[in-house]
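A.,

Following up on our hallway conversation. Structure tokens first:
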């Protein structure tokens, strides 16, 4: 830690460094020094150039009044510090907390939609300046609560591939000593296969409107100070994707109830504010709702982590996430109306 902080002229000497529990793709630490409090991020992918590009975008977004926590530059004026082959970034510490949709009022849900729309407009301006020679794709990898078509892939999930995955997962579930999670996983896998068979003809075919997006916009990547958003963090998945789908995915994560239903009374003001802030039409939102619904039908990343990778970090979110697809299919028209009214 002393060696890393010496790269920064005014960071001071380390006093304490505590690992933060949140985060699936990188490691974060609350760092206290003789000069203040910082957030230290260890970028596990180690792509120096990609991280530097993300930082350039974040710095530009700050000038467009998007709430961010811009990285600090070291003595060599670089925002990415490489130590023993590992990439680190130092950010100012943001005093704030994460808030789920259940904590947001209707007015705060409206402000959340405005924030996302404003961010998308800022990204459109900033990234057009930053990458004038063309669009660049975001990195791939599992996103909070999402699966199906990966970033940069416009093709919707193929149900034939999903059927094969379901069989593989069922075989893994059934060969192990069973607990209540395994019983639920088997039930949901069999249920989802039947649901897909009944709805396979609804696979999306239209090519969506693409634009620059955060790529992982959800409650753990947004810090609030009181009732106001203080900083959008974790820009590792910045890239070009179907823009309105990020708005739908974010709402599905923010406003998901424990019973696997969505709080549509809060989705409605959120979606209206998003459309107003970025000029997205109701047809674009309706298409996004359909594609994200389809992704959810074909999404088993939580079970893949548990049974194929032996990673149990996503297990707590599985019951509500798995129930959502069943409820959403029954309430399809109501969900679409909430995003388009």
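Then the amino acids I'd put at each of the 341 positions:
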């Amino acid at each position: 830690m002393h060696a890393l902080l010496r790269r920064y002229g005014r960071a001071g000497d380390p006093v304490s460094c505590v690992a933060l529990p949140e985060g699936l793709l990188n490691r974060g630490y609350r760092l206290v020094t003789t000069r203040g409090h910082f957030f230290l991020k260890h970028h596990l992918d180690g792509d120096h150039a990609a991280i530097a590009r993300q930082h350039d975008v974040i710095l530009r977004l700050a000038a467009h009044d998007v709430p961010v926590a811009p990285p600090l530059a070291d003595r060599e004026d670089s925002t990415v510090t490489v130590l023993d082959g590992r990439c680190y970034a130092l950010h100012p510490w943001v005093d704030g907390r994460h808030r789920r949709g259940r904590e947001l009022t209707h007015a705060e849900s409206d402000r959340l939609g405005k924030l996302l729309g404003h961010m998308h407009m800022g990204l459109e301006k900033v990234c057009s300046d930053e990458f004038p020679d063309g669009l660049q794709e975001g990195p791939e990898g599992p996103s909070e609560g999402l699966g199906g078509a990966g970033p940069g892939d416009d093709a919707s999930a193929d149900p034939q591939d999903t059927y094969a995955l379901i069989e593989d997962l069922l075989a893994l579930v059934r060969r192990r000593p069973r607990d209540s999670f395994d019983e639920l996983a088997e039930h949901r896998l069999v249920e989802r296969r039947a649901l897909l068979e009944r709805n396979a003809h609804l696979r999306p075919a239209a090519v969506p409107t693409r634009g620059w997006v955060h790529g992982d916009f959800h409650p753990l990547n947004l810090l609030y100070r009181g009732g106001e958003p203080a900083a959008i963090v974790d820009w590792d998945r910045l890239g070009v994707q179907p823009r309105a789908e990020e708005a739908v995915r974010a709402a599905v994560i923010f406003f998901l109830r424990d019973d696997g239903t969505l709080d549509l009374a809060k989705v409605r003001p959120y979606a209206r504010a998003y459309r107003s802030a970025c000029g997205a039409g109701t047809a674009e939102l309706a298409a996004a709702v359909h594609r994200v619904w389809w992704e959810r039908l074909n999404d088993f990343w939580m079970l893949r982590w548990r049974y194929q990778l032996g990673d149990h970090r996503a297990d707590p979110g599985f019951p509500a996430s798995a129930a959502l697809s069943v409820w959403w299919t029954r309430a399809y028209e109501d969900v679409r109306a909430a995003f388009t009214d």
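Confidence is low (pLDDT under 50) at residues 134-152. Curious whether your intuition agrees with the design.

B.
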